[in-house]
Amino acid sequence: MVALVHGVPLEMTQAEVYQEVQDNVLLNASFWANIALAGVAILLFVYMGRNVTDPRAKLIWVATLLVPLVSIASYTGLASGLTISFFEMPSGHALAGEEVLTMWGRYLTWTLSTPMILLALGLLAGTNLTKLFTIITADIAMCVTGLAAAMTTSSYGLRWFWYFLSCTFFIVVLYVLLVEWPKDAEAAGTSDIFNMLKILTVVLWLGYPIFWALGAEGLAILDVAITSWGYSALDIGAKYVFAFLLLRWVAANEALIARQPSAFGTGIVDDTGTGTPADD
To answer: What is the pLDDT of residues 71-86, one digit of tens each?
Structure first.
């Protein structure tokens, strides 16, 4: 199947885009399924975190809770046609000259929600500020360059250039997740839960660039609705299942979280030999 809409005018009102979404039952269902699940997740996570008192554990809980909060707002934007547009594909694309529905609002969701996932994982691993800053900035860059790939209509080659640039930032994220943070989690005593969540995150996040490449934004092998369901299914696992497993562990192991340092370090050891001067 291919993702194209024949006869769609170049400029559409929001009401017209909304009607196009409504007419595609499968596509519309992919949005509302996540709205419903995000609502349930918010209520569940509030209940799960009701007795959390340690400041670091609370920060993990707040970061995790923000994930479904961002998602419910984002998917409402998609369902209402607010963050969806039709772009004419450039020469060289399988649908060159056709108006293709582009769900650019998903990139806004990922830009806001994935850093919260990484913040929660970093806190769990007991990492330092340098590594946390590195992975979050690389993650945001990954999402923004992915958005650029989806919205570039001037050149088919440039679309793929943005795509591979986004994948480069993704490699940085994977490096920190797979190489740096497991060592931190081992030192913090949280390696068991961290390694499980790390594998879940890496496996599911790898699905996003695959669906991009196969969907209308890339090779146009998959229909827009199928692509949307692929993204939605990945979101369910990478956000709600991930968050549930993390919060359940944090609620049961708050004392272990509390024993970690209360503030981030930079990972740099000060060996200048200077100490706090004594009072005269």
So the answer is: 999 999 999 999 999 9
* Under 8 Å between Cβ of 142 and 169: yes
Measured between alpha carbons, how far is 176 from 140 in angstroms, rounded to an integer? 14
Give backbone dihedrals phi and psi of 100, rounded to 5 degrees, phi first. -115, 135
DSSP 89-112: PPTTSTTTTSEEEE-THHHHHHHH
254: its two tokens: 């708050």
> Each residue of 149-159: pLDDT tens digit?
999 999 999 99
Give the C-alpha separation, 183 to 262, whole Å: 19
The Cα 17–Cα 78 span in angstroms is 10
Which residue's structure tokens are 């995790």?
Answer: 64
Residue with tokens 């108006």: 99
Contact call for residues 166 and 142 (beta carbons, < 8 A) = yes
Residue 278 Cα distances to 116, 155, 272, 273, angstroms: 42, 66, 17, 15
Q: What is the pTM of this model?
A: 0.88
